[in-house]
Amino acid sequence: SSELTQDPAVSVALGQTVRITCQGDSLRGYYGGWYQQKPGQAPILIIYDKTNRPSGIPDRFSGSSSGNTASLTITGAQAEDEADYYCNSRDNSNNRHVFGTGTKVTVL
Amino acid sequence: QVLLVESGGGVVQPGRSLRLSCAASGYTFSNFAMHWVRQAPGKGLDWVAVISYDGSYKYYADSVKGRFTISRDNSKNILYLHMNSLRGEDTAVYYCAHGPSFDPWGQGTLVTVSS
Question: Which residue of A has its CA nearest to B46?
């Protein structure tokens, strides 16, 4: 199966750390990245190639991966980090991409 | 920098067709794969299709295979999505995204399938 499963919602206190996970078999062969989407806006890439951040993405965002699980960690969450987060992968057997179910992060 | 602008969305009746466009600028369009991704109202991201840099490879989600066609015109720096036999469940904001990392995305264009 190429499905990617994420927790629907998590909350984090301002300045604290939160980890979001993404599980799926396709992650064993291909790790696409993590995307942040705020209401009414297009998604933006925040992590690629497991651990890399595009320019302009704060270093409080970090990524990791092991087996069939990818993780996004926000260390020292800020109010502006409140958003939906999606992981992404590709099924190497048919070259079809897939997005995770999405996690809504609330900063308290 | 890379800029993607979608157009062509609107209200269409079930069973009809629509063509979306994505105009690219700020980079060598013909060197990179491109994707279409959609998002139904209040729902998550749903990958639709990808096309290789030269158009020789195309892959589709099962939900649109046989009804949608992705294409590109590298001489005009435009990506297309031809959508046939539209259904209510195709109602969504459609985004184009620069591959292979889906970075960046366009602002999206809304397609509403309704009678």
Answer: A99
How far is B104 from B20, CA to CA, in rounded Å? 18
**Neighbouring residues of B8: CB distance < 8 A, sequence distance ≥ 6:** B18, B19, B20, B21, B109
Q: Which of residues 68-87 of B touch A (CB under 8 A)?
A: none
Are B101 and A32 within 8 A, CB to CB? yes
Which residues on chain B are in Cβ contact (under 8 Å) with A86? 44-45
Name residues whose C-beta falls within 8 Å of residue B83's C-beta, 6 or more positions apart in sequence.
B17, B18, B19, B20, B64, B67, B68, B90, B111
Reported as type and span, the H/E element at residue A65 is strand A61-66
Q: What is the mean pLDDT of chain A?
A: 94
DSSP per-residue codes, A70-96: EEEEEES--GGG-EEEEEEEEETTTTE
Chain A / chain B CB contacts < 8 angstroms: 55
Q: What is the pLDDT of residues A64-104, one digit of tens each?
A: 999 999 999 999 999 999 999 999 999 888 889 999 999 99
The answer to whether B106 contacts chain A (CB < 8 Å) is yes
A1 band by pLDDT with thresholds 50, 70 and 90: low
CB contact (8 A) between residue A45 and residue B47: no
Distance CA A93, CA B17 (A): 30
User: pLDDT tens digit string along B87-102?
Assistant: 999 999 999 999 889 9
